[in-house]
Amino acid sequence: MNPSSLVPSSSKPLVCKNLGYAIATVMLVATTSVQAAPTVTAAAAVSEPDNTPTTVESLSETNNTLATQRQPSDAALSAANQKLLSQNAQLQRQVNDLQTQVNVLVYESKGQLFLYGAFTVVISLLVGIFVSWLVFVRRERW
Asked: Regarding predicted confidence, which is higher, 26 or 84?
């Protein structure tokens, strides 16, 4: 019995139809669940007049007082400046420490590479001496 004969030949179109219905259902639900943005009517846009100053002089006075309120004092500026200077010095020290560590690691890696090269030369010489000794010893035996 062939396993493909157990599956009805119309299963692919059935899956496609079901998938199409599922997509259509999801789209329908999504469109019906979307709420419209609230709109502003003309009556709601008109507000009652409030007691705000409308003359140019009173507006400039209000701006001046806000500007003076927002302006930090000399003591606050000095304290913030000192804090930033101390942070800058601390970060500078950290940068110098890290630069020193980098230099040490670079020199260590160069020294390590030099040692690897030296060991390679020594081992090559020993292998060369051993091979030449084998050749000369075998010549003497002939």
From this structure: 84
pLDDT band at 59 (very low <50, low <70, confident <90, very high): low
Distance of CA 110 to the CA centre of its chain: 33
CB 15 within 8 A of CB 21: no
Cβ–Cβ under 8 Å, residues 71 and 63:
no
| Angstrom distance (rounded) from CA 65 to CA 71 | 10
Q: What is the pLDDT of residue 108?
A: 93
Which residue's entry shows tokens 């899956």? 15
Estimate to the nearest angstrom the gap between the alpha carbon of 15 and the chain centroid: 42
Contact call for residues 59 and 53 (beta carbons, < 8 A): yes
| pLDDT tier, 36 (very low <50, low <70, confident <90, very high otherwise) | very low
> Residue type at 58?
S
What is residue 9's DSSP assignment?
Answer: T
Alpha-carbon gap, residue 40 to 43, rounded angstroms: 8
